[in-house]
Amino acid sequence: MASGININRQPSDFQRKLNPNVAMVLSILLAGLGQLYNRRYVKGISFIILEIAFILATFDFLWLGLWGIITLGTIPGVDHSIYLLVYGIVALLLLAIAGTFYVLNVIDARKQAIQINNGWVSPGIKQSLKNLYDKAFPYIMTLPGVILLIFTVVFPLLFAIALAFTNYDLYNSPPRNLVEWIGFGNFTDLVTVDLWKNTFTSVFVWTIIWTLVATSFQIVVGLILAVLVNDKRVQFKKTIRTILILPWAVPGFVSILIFAAMFNDEFGAINKDIIIPLIGGDGLPWLTDPFYTKIVLIMIQTWLGYPFVFALFSGVLQSISSEWYEAAEVDGATRWQKFRNITLPHVLFATAPLLIIQYTTNFNNFNIIYLFNEGGPAVQGQNAGGTDILISWVYKLTFETNNYSMAAAISLIIGLMVSIFAIFQFRRTSSFKEEGNI
């Protein structure tokens, strides 16, 4: 035991006995053997017990999971491919966790062998436990959160990625039928099969237009209103700000449903009380013509989104020193020059990360698209509506046509696009860099 080690023993006594490479190889063969070789008996025995217990407790499950994720079943009606896929992903996660600890065990064995050769003497059991507690306490406290994160975030993500490479749909649904791995077949269909290609192109283009136009409009409107209200000549600022933020106080789905009723082609107030009295006829096809529906959606999103931007910009504008504007006036700057060189740079510098989030949020803004007109109207030759964006199309593929694998493939594309855009923009944003010139 550690208590039997002679503290006065010279490093040369250990150098003849301990080989770090031997300790490493022993730990690779069986976790804990390297620690026993280093005469860390309590730690070595604990590692051996943990490894044997893990193997005995999970061997059957790991074997089933690995077999299942490779084959997805072999007997229709008996093997459930989706269950086997779930078991396989869980098995891979367990192996990843166990592998991480195994690697740490190997590193620990080699490192301690080197330390002992350099004269380090292991403390007693009591001191070892105290040192372990001091070093491991933060990890012990975060461990439940990490486990929860793995099985509530990482697991669903891996499951969705796996589905994207299968043929899981209404016609290949277990347990009656088996699901098969098809590689990049779903992604290939998106660019080669006419139905999928036409739909994907149309929906993708509209998603980009929707994201850029709707978000830019709400930002511009919020900025203009914030600058106007912040003008020192404007009276009753608090009242005006309260009125302008009111759309934010109403739940979004309530506002969307109200707008859907107002723009109804047959009985909506917009056609009945405004359009028809002005131009006659039957009014405008707000819900039956994709062009008009898209215009309305952009207008509604501007209405719903500008209050947040307005409140954000208002706070930033009040933090800009009035001395800067006074100095600009002394230099003969016009209102536009003061706005362009003082107001706008400071506002964008302080709010750029949140503005980027506005774009990424609208890219996946399912609520307004689906609640207003369920992504409609229908378009001939496509399996998505005329105003469907990628996320609402994924919803329809999942819950209406049960094409789970294609929905997963499109979701993977969405995730990659949003991640790349966000990372690229954040890295270019001054707010995430060290102080510099504005």
From TrEMBL:
Domain ABC transmembrane type-1 residues, every copy: 204-425
Annotated TM spans: 45-70, 82-104, 136-165, 203-230, 242-263, 291-313, 342-361, 404-424
InterPro entries xrefs: MetI-like (IPR000515), MetI-like_sf (IPR035906)
The keyword Cell membrane is annotated on this UniProt entry: yes
Membrane-topology annotation of the record: Multi-pass membrane protein
Chief localisation class: membrane
UniProt keyword terms in alphabetical order: Cell membrane, Membrane, Sugar transport, Transmembrane, Transmembrane helix, Transport
Gene3D superfamilies membership: MetI-like (1.10.3720.10)
Keyword Membrane recorded: yes
Intracellular or extracellular location(s): Cell membrane
Role this protein plays: Part of the ABC transporter complex MalEFGK involved in maltose/maltodextrin import. Probably responsible for the translocation of the substrate across the membrane.
Family according to the record: Belongs to the binding-protein-dependent transport system permease family. MalFG subfamily.
Protein name listed in UniProt: Maltose/maltodextrin transport system permease protein
